[in-house]
Amino acid sequence: MGLVTTKGMFKRAYDGGYAIGAFNVNNMEVIQGVVEALAMGNAPGILQISKGARQYAGMTYLRKLVEAALEEHKELELAVHLDHGPDFELCKACVDDPIFTSVMIDASALPLEENIRITKQVVDYAHAAGKVVEAELGRLGGIEEHVQVSEKEAFLTDPDEAEIFVERTKVDSLAVAIGTSHGAYKFKGEPVLALDLVEELTRRLKGFPLVMHGSSSVPQELVELCNKYGGQLPNARGVPEEMISKAVKMGICKVNIDTDIRLAITAKLREFFATQPSVFDYRKYLAPARDAVRNMVLHKLDVLGCKGKAVT
Q1: Residue 308: is it exposed, middle or buried by C-beta count within 10 angstroms (0-12/13-18/19+)?
Q2: Which has the closest alpha carbon to 184: 152, 226, 155?
Q3: Which of 27, 129, 158, 226 is the most buried (most CB within 10 A)?
Q4: What is the mean pLDDT of residues 64-74?
Q5: Between these two residues, 102 and 153, which has the higher pLDDT value?
Q6: Overall pTM > 0.70
Q7: What domains lie within the chain, and their CATH numbers?
Q8: Residues 6-52: pLDDT tens digits?
Q9: For 86-122, how does the pLDDT look when each residue is reduced to its tens digit (9 = 90+)?
Q10: What's the mean pLDDT in 172-187?
């Protein structure tokens, strides 16, 4: 199957009541773990490359790693997506890069009219190249690389604005703010998502793909394992998986996962270093870290309901 845009994935997900997992990747072990899980689960999937990933690994390395994954797993139905593109220039560079099939322009910090203008500029350029665009309306709280939003600055997506935004920009999917946030500290009190807002947005934008960012669950067993071996993640909490499943059934077609992968790797490495202090062969600890990524992604495919949904 190889590289595809998200259009077909999202249409099938919307009609089938499941969601596509979008996993942030930064290095070889994470890419290997994600694609192994997608292949094992016969699931469509999205590899997300952020501005930070490009700076960390270099786009040449990331491109070749994705190409290697596609060569190893020819059956994969895979999209490669720019996550949180901050401006037209970076989105343009990724549209021009053959490895990307999708880009996100995130101008959600700007006033509505400016967000519309920049998003439409990206959409027009990407559509002319046969690629698709995700945008964001509303503001998620929390911290993810260069995206930092305080509680006071965060606000939910307005359905009236969403209708206007989609109509004027012709964007292909929309990341909506429904109460999630970036990072490992998503809720101070009881976790609550604005599922009534998801329902209203789905009613207003019938058939249109909605996206959940900040959707890691931050499994408590991994938090405890990390803290047991020297980590300092007090009160880290994520989005309960049952809430994610409900949102998916209401019309969320894409769910972003980053923090849970980082947590799975970190917990495994901390445990390894504490219990096997004499080992200094990095292959010995990076291999189980890679396995932890694979196991995490396999679990997420069950939560999202997309196992067995790939087109091969």
Answers
A1: exposed
A2: 226
A3: 226
A4: 96
A5: 102
A6: yes
A7: 2-219+238-258+300-304 (3.20.20.70)
A8: 999 999 999 999 999 999 999 999 999 999 999 999 999 999 999 99
A9: 999 999 999 999 999 999 999 998 999 999 999 999 9
A10: 73
Let me know how long the chain is: 312
Residues with active-site annotation: 83
